[in-house]
Amino acid sequence: VMTCLTVTPRTAAEAITENAGMIVSHHPILFKPVQRITADSPSGRMLWNLAGAGIAVYSPHTAFDNTRGGINDWLASRIGLVNVRGLRSMPPHPAFKVVVFTPESDREPVLAAAFAAGAGRIGEYQECSFSSPGLGTFFGLEGTNPTLGASGRRESVPEQRVEILCTGQRLAAVLAAVRQRHSYEEPAIDVYPLHVPETGPGIGRVGRLFAVETLRELASRVALLLAATQVSIVGDPDRVVEHAAIVCGAGDDFLPDAVRQGADVLITGEARFHRGLDAEALGMGLIVVGHHATERPGVEDLAQRLAAAFPQLDLWASRGE
Question: Residues 36-46: what's their mean pLDDT?
Fold first, then answer.
């Protein structure tokens, strides 16, 4: 297994030459869905070569940036932040409870369809549901063909109230699957949004520097720690800073968050020209050390941690990227 920052022709060739079975890369090869893969593009050729060699690629990207023990935590620890917290809260994933009313004969087919579409997952359990009996009524108008009873009169029939949980991502597919397997012309379905508390440490990190220093001193120390070949600074180099925010990679969009969190400086890998102007106008320090410099050390550290966790594997950080 080889870790790398980005799968490039050079790192792909290294993985093939070293007979790797898997690449754990920080950046995905493809950032957008594609309709086909051909050897006519650089990324397509890499995928063909990797597939031909039987090499899998797993790319955690921003999940690895922000998880506990991920790259931003690694940076905060190395730079010497204390009282560290998330810079921006992670928005919770929307979740819903789907309630469908079925005759007893439909309960199992409807549940099977909903489970197959992705509903019913609670933690490490799947195919979770709850059913309770009840009595449903309906009056079919002219032209209807009810599964139970007849149209033109009010009917009362035994039904099951079936409850299942569903993520927002799977909601449309689950509803379509339920309707397809339900025998009623007009199945009664309720969808309730659920309150999901925020989880995880959030995006980026902010905390207090172990020792007060000037912006120039902090920039020099960060450059040395990350082996950065070029560092840009916005702000008075002699300004004293005490609280710092960190976002690895391209993190200049988090400048307003750093201001709200009371940071004196934002340390990140990339920043656009106008973000530098914004920082200057806000009286905020900005240290830009390069995308590669902020993320490559985390990938090297990941290789060491994976090697310790899986001693039976031959694990290394790519020498090419």
Answer: 82
